[in-house]
Amino acid sequence: MRKIAWIIAAALGLSLAGCGGGGSGGSNSGTNSNTSINAPGGGSSPATSSGTGSSSNVLAVDASAVPTAVGPGNTIAVTVSQTGIHNQPMVSVTICTDSTNATANCATIPNVIVDTASFGLRLVRSAIPAATFSALAPELAQPSGLPLAECALFGSGYAWGSVHYADVALSGEIAQKVPIHVIGDSALTVAAPTECQVGRPLVTTTDIGANGILGIGVSPNDCGMACQNAAVSAFYYTNAGTATSVLVTGQITNPVTKFGQDNNGVILEMGQISDSGSATAQGTLVFGIDTQANNVLNGTSATLIRTNGNGDFASSYGGTTLTKTFFDSGSTVLFFPDLTIPIDSASGYYIPTTTVGRTSTLVATSPASVSLGFNIANGATLNASGNYAFNNLGIYLSRQFDFGMPFFYGRHVYYGISGKASTGGGTGPYVAYVSS
User: Fold this and answer.
1) Closest Cα partner for 345 from 20, 97, 46?
2) What average pLDDT does range 75-88 have in this prediction?
3) Residue 286 and residue 283: Cα distance in Å, rounded?
4) Composition bias, kind Low complexity: at what positions (predicted)?
5) Is 270:89 a contact under the CB 8 Å cutoff?
6) Better pLDDT: 257 or 153
7) Which domains does the chain possess?
8) Which of 13, 20, 116, 251 could tie 329 with a disulfide, CB 3.0–4.6 Å?
């Protein structure tokens, strides 16, 4: 299970780096085992052994794909604004009593982060109205029959909460009886197990910078067979604090997989923004791939990349192969290792005197490999601008390449779910993107 990892990014605060993009995994819900923490633990200090990037300075042309119009039932509006932290894509999620086709005791929760590198819905208890929460049935661990709890580990702390069933509605799509993680549930009176207490507790919306996280990456669930076959430390517990195994069907679940249709993947489409930053940004989250006229992958000439069960693939940067490379809307910046760009020693931000251009080579199925250009501007200047959406913000991090939110502006980015097929992508897991 790749739990969510949060990154302290100095003045930017918390940055979600996703359950996806790390470790090993299978190719379908019956076999996948997401058991390693994916994301960056922070802007690590540069080291001469960590690799360098090209010092050439050819600026990349900004991607220019336009988001699909919001309106059809398989679309939902995505907004980046001053709510929460910079570069956080937010949607509204409706939850209801389970198995009612999303008709009973419903509440719409705004400001939920769209995270394409994690799997499952996690909501802060205080963001759920009492009447709705009381109508959500707790999941019971087996064979004990005690209510189930989960510990989610983060770079800056840990989230301890209960597991409940809910119907989840996203625009016109409904997923019934989805196990969701309720963070900071006061009814869970037992403290988080010692192995979970890494850093500070993350309990409130202020701690997280949002009301929750919608994990819609390539895996159907957040652990897989590892947690079904054994009680894995620092993951699932009873409400008495005892580690327990959980069937795949009872694990925190990517709600897209439980839609009646449009359930084989998602497309995150964000409009392009100014290179100096923008106060807001808008986009569209589209459900399904090659299932309707507005979610076509087949015939688009998209770059298609096969991934492992966590959404990882390989890239080459500055002569170094980075096997942990992933597209992650839950990360607010581009995280990668480049010693040729000036770095702020306190925050890890890249702070070039003028904007620099760089290129990463992605190992893809179609074509065999592709060069992806991007730009990095001065992080201190961008942060001082008062804007909230940035397409060229980066932080030093060794040994991996996390293409965070700056990558998504001006692109349609596809996520094919493990074990699900589309005409244009074949059977997942895979990612793909178009830039114009």
Assistant:
1) 46
2) 94
3) 10
4) 29-53
5) yes
6) 257
7) 75-258 (2.40.70), 298-434 (2.40.70)
8) 116
